[in-house]
Write a structure and sequence with these properties.
single chain; about 475 residues; alpha/beta; Rossmann fold; Serine Threonine Protein Phosphatase 5, Tetratricopeptide repeat; DNA Cyclobutane Dipyrimidine Photolyase, subunit A, domain 3; 3 domains; five-stranded parallel beta sheet; 5 strands; globular; binds flavin-adenine dinucleotide
Length: about 475
């Protein structure tokens, strides 16, 4: 009988879990699960307390599910990545596992951490088996015919759409096995120091919930996705991102369910979003500098950003005087989530209107998002800032007033998050206030969009001339 350890990270589920399924292949083997709480890494990566809280609640569900399968979940706590090799040496002596099975994490620190653990385990003759899990099409499997990585999304998606129907169907959860004599550790929740200001409870945790939400979305809403996805006052998108980010939902399961729905523009558009998710993860693997806060387009590192902390603070707190921007930033502060259209609009506003470094915004998002994900967040920010791969061209600058008029014409979204503007007629919400402020308490716009736009255009143009 062998003893195998499955190290869970951002893959908190039992369905379609390659490492868990492989560990459970032989019914007589003992399978033990492990989760390592690493506050140093959470701090270093700006993980939002609401995400930590949601992950711990997900872990409580996972622990129960694993117990039903006869697999105990061990919980260990470390202060930093550097402590993890020693933790594994201790585990090897305590439980005597022959093998550690896990999924690859592609962030630069995570890769370094896993290399160090692998080295420590190799010295003990313990095998570490890595499986690809984070993407639908694993990184490295989709390169241009010339062999180099795609840098443009459309041909990537075209190829991705050819490949995905040929992929194997998602793996079922393993069968229950003989109960281990080992006990599962309790999951500390709420965790002192990580109690979020905004509750994560509106997001029910765990893979059952994730799968139910996926089913509901595919049965009832995916057909309208193409028409409703840009309207932030409507529940037009799947809201599955927190589950995909912590792996309580397998991305392959999301694909599989979507492919089982009747074809149509809603389904096609949603598949495109799953492709964007893969695209940015592939970029992180092929161009690891983006995971170290470097621009994909290195020439843009010559841009000299404003240092106006007061502007940044106004953006963070939703006090810029631009109702759509402020409503979106308050949605983030009050829920830990923001609609995709508004992530683009607020990011573009931070960079092109306030002329603040995109990294400031990237960090603020990570510190507040329940679905914070290095590749998607970095990809979204660099797209909006025109510093990234297949980014929006620098001269296409969203006008925040026009975006507001287009995507929230009746001001429904704005009024939900800015109740102080409830009495204001919609058309006054979508243009500069003229000679009268909108209300006594609501701020005057902190910049003029037309002037800010010209400044951004000139700065990018200057950069192009210099390089
Ligand atoms: C500046 C900026 C920052 C972002 N930060 C994150 C982040 O930290 N974490 C995150 O998961 N997404 C991020 N996104 C992408 C996108 O906004 C969210 O995935 C989406 O809003 C989540 O809502 P949903 O689950 O309803 O998405 P749906 O529209 O239902 O899409 C389904 C899934 O596809 C994926 N997806 C959708 N759009 C994108 C995209 N543009 N890039 C990558 N994946 C995508 C997500 O996993 C999402 O759950 C960011 C986008 C921008 C512009």
């Amino acid at each position: 009988m062998a003893r195998r350890l499955v190290w869970f990270r951002q893959d908190l589920r039992t369905h379609d879990h390659a490492a868990l399924s492989a560990a459970c292949r032989h019914p007589d083997d003992e399978v033990i699960a492990l989760y390592v709480m690493n506050e140093g890494a959470w701090l270093a990566h700006d993980t939002a307390p609401i995400k930590v809280d949601f992950d711990l609640r997900t872990l409580i569900q996972l622990r129960q599910r694993l117990i039903q399968l006869g697999i105990p979940l061990l919980l260990r706590q470390v202060a930093a990545d550097a402590d993890i090799p020693a933790l594994f040496i201790q585990l090897a002596s305590d439980i005597g596992m022959q093998e550690v099975l896990l999924h690859v994490e592609h962030g630069p620190n995570e890769l370094q951490r896993d290399r160090a653990v692998n080295q420590a385990l190799t010295a003990l003759n313990i095998n570490m088996r890595f499986y690809e899990d984070a993407c639908i099409v694993p990184p490295g499997n989709l390169h241009r015919p010339q062999g180099d990585p795609y840098q443009v999304f459309t041909p990537f998606k075209r190829r991705w759409l050819q490949v995905v129907p040929t992929l194997p169907t998602p793996l079922a959860a393993p069968q229950p096995r003989r109960q281990s004599l080992r006990l599962s550790d309790p999951i500390p929740h709420p965790l002192p120091g990580w109690i979020p200001e905004v509750s994560s409870w509106p997001w029910p945790a765990g893979e059952d919930e994730a799968l139910q939400r996926l089913e509901l979305f595919c049965n009832e809403r995916i057909h309208d996705y193409a028409t409703l996805r840009d309207i932030p006052s409507q529940p037009g998108t799947s809201q599955l991102s927190p589950y995909l980010a912590n792996g309580s939902l397998s991305p392959r399961m999301a694909l599989h369910q979507a492919l089982a729905t009747p074809p149509g523009s809603g389904r096609d558009t949603w598949l495109g979003e799953l492709a964007w998710r893969d695209f940015f993860k592939h970029i992180l693997v092929d161009y690891p500098r983006v995971g170290r806060h470097r621009a994909f387009d290195l020439s843009t590192e010559g841009l000299i950003w404003s240092k106006r902390n007061d502007h940044f603070e106004a953006w963070c707190q939703g006090r810029t005087g631009f109702p759509l921007i402020d409503a979106a930033m308050r949605q983030l502060l009050q829920t830990g989530w923001m609609h995709n259209r508004l992530r683009m609009v607020t990011a573009m506003f931070l960079v092109k209107d306030l002329w603040l470094d995109w990294r400031w915004g990237e960090r603020w998002f990570m510190q507040h998002l329940i679905d914070g994900d290095l590749a998607a967040n970095n990809g979204g920010w660099q797209w909006s800032a025109s510093t990234g791969v297949d980014a929006v061209p620098y001269f296409r600058i969203f006008n925040p007033w026009t975006q507001s008029q287009r995507f929230d014409p009746d001001g429904l979204f704005i009024r939900t998050w800015l109740p102080e503007l409830a009495p204001i007629p919609p058309k006054r919400l979508h243009c500069p206030p003229g000679s009268h402020p909108l209300t006594d308490s609501y701020p005057w716009p902190i910049i003029r969009h037309d002037q800010a736009r010209l400044h951004a255009l000139a700065a990018f143009k200057n950069l192009r001339t210099l390089s």
